Amino acid sequence: MPTLTLRIPEIESKGRVEARFALTRAWLDEALAQTELSTPGAGADDEEVGEVRLAAQMAARDVVVQGTVEVSLAAPCARCNEPLVLALAVPFTQLASPRPDRLELPEELELTPEDLDREYYAGDELVLDAMVREALLLEVPMRPVHDEADCDPAVIAALADAEARRPKGALAGLAGLKDKLKS
Ligand SMILES: [Zn+2]
What we know:
By secondary structure, the protein is an alpha+beta fold. The protein is 30% helix and 33% strand. It has helices at 8-14, 25-32, 113-117, 129-139, 153-165, 172-182, and strands spanning 5-7, 16-24, 48-59, 62-76, 83-98, 119-121, 125-127. The chain is elongated and about 80 Å long. Residues 77, 79-80, 82, 145-146, 151-152 line the site of zinc ion. Zinc ion is lined by residues 77, 79-80, 82, 145-146, 151-152.
């Protein structure tokens, strides 16, 4: 990284630029480091495992980027802990502004929520890697699980058994407590 960059002068001269970027296994491995997620399968670092398609246009001095990132990620199943593959197609929109000179910054910088969402570009390049990574990670469910048919059957059976043994109803907890107090 970074490998996903747009040239600002090109967007300025054409008004609107469409682009496609390949996401390589090496890119995805790096993007997913420090997470529970991984790149599915095995292969060469330069293997293409996903793509970003986008259009960028100027809005005054800002760049508006709209696109979709498509990639598959492996995540541990929240039920059986075996890997499952999530095929993601994530739309994103991002506004990027020229990075202000330090001298231009007001002494007390007040950040609004919009500012925090805003990306900045410096010089002639807009780097999209962090934005694409964030769009992907936000799309991953909190507790990804297999379809029941694909989950480890032993785990499914154990969970069903535990569910069957669980006391039912609002008073069940109290009844359990009473049993414990007696013993
Ligand atoms: Zn599972």
